[in-house]
Amino acid sequence: MITRKHIHEETFDVAPEIVFDLLVTPSAIREWWGASHVIIDRKQGGLWVGLWGDEDSPEYITACRMSVFEHPKRIVFSDWEYYSNKGPCPFDARLTSDFSVIPVSANKTVLRVVQDGFPTDCVPTSSM
Known about the structure:
seven-stranded antiparallel β-sheet, 128 residues, mainly beta
């Protein structure tokens, strides 16, 4: 399947370790992404799970595997699972998110995010 990807880079005035840790620290993720619950098994192959809303009746749940975990340089999230109380994801895809933490200096870091696997022609899963 032909896919499209999104690439974004952002520069931060902090050390690479700080940027990396923000990606795998549940309390930080709850703050910057607005999740109500986050569980992370910080290792190669570990799980990353975020939940939005009430844990007994969540609005959204996102879960994935950290197929690459190279502290403090890179994480690749794969094997995504998505739940919404409004229904399934509107397209069938095998998504990946590749986070590269690139040191510029001792206190300057570039975070490069490559999200891939989005279909070029979204066909709703209910039509498949």
